[in-house]
Amino acid sequence: MLSLPVSVRIYVAREAVDLRKAFDGLCAITRDVFVQARSIHGPRFVFFNRRRDRIKLLLWERNGFWLLYERLERGTFEVLTKAASSEEAHIEIDGRRLRLLLDGVDTKSSRFRRHFACDVRIADRSRRDGSDDQPATRSATC
Length: 142
Known about the structure:
Number of helices: 2
Order of helices and strands: EHEEEEHEE
Shape: globular
Number of strands: 7
Largest sheet: 5 strands, mixed
Helix content: 10-25%
């Protein structure tokens, strides 16, 4: 099971990668391709093959790398696109989109709903000052 914290940065290579490469080969690509990712200790790196039916994830965890590999028996992974004017070698996505990508959900036709915050009023019944006025309230966001 792959669980990713919200704060993690995920970089997806735009170009196809030879997935015969192992840890060292993919680490070399991350140094060359992902120059803007200053440290390889935090972000996750995602690589696809040319047919887009295989994916490798390179993850750093405390004292070493994890290399996760998935091969689809049927179908392909979604082609991630960004603005056509962008000439970056990678696309940055969040953990939710990676999870949807791995589950086979087409994120082009789906959309994320905006989260909202609402005020919740909680009556403070612990006040015992003898006044029968309105109970004190505290506000919180949901």
